[in-house]
Amino acid sequence: MKKILLAALAGLVLVSACKKDNDSVPTQQVSGTFSGSNEVPAITASGSGTFTGTYTPSTKSLSYTATFSGLTGAATASHLHFGDAKHSGPVTVSFTGVPAANSGTITGTATLTAQQADSLTAGRIYANIHTAANTGGELRANVRVK
Q: Which of 22, 121, 127, 134 could pair with 141 in a Cys bridge, judged by C-beta atoms 3.0 to 4.6 Å apart?
């Protein structure tokens, strides 16, 4: 009887240890600071801004707000990209409602795939704002989960 009880207890400990830590977290804060110096390669740009939001691991839902000002011209596009702080990568989430202005706010919600969610929590996602003068990106915010 002791052996069965011990085996059952060991099984419970093993199952508990294998559960993902972030599954029990209701929401996590995400943030980043937009600047030209975050671009890869870095560019000289006077614009700035912030990327903030919440990520819910259980539903893989990301709600975000991006604010920016001081662009060289109107924003032409804005996205989330795969890539760590030292590398650029492909677009993974395109933002809608990007104001065609040199300052503004973008808000939205995205349901992430498993790959996107893993990249976000590992610090391998960044937000980018593009302009006609800087088609590869004028402002970049390396997004971090807190």
A: 127
- Cis preceding linkage at 41, omega within 30: yes
The residue ranges of every structural domain in the chain are 22-145
pTM of the full structure: 0.82
CATH of domain 22-145: 2.60.40.200
80 phi and psi, to 5 degrees?
A: -100, 140
Q: Which tens digit of pLDDT belongs to each residue from 54-88?
A: 999 999 999 999 999 999 999 999 999 999 999 99
Rounded Cα distance between 102 and 29, Å, is 27
Cβ-based neighbour number of residue 71 at 10 Å: 27
DSSP letter (8 states) at residue 37: G
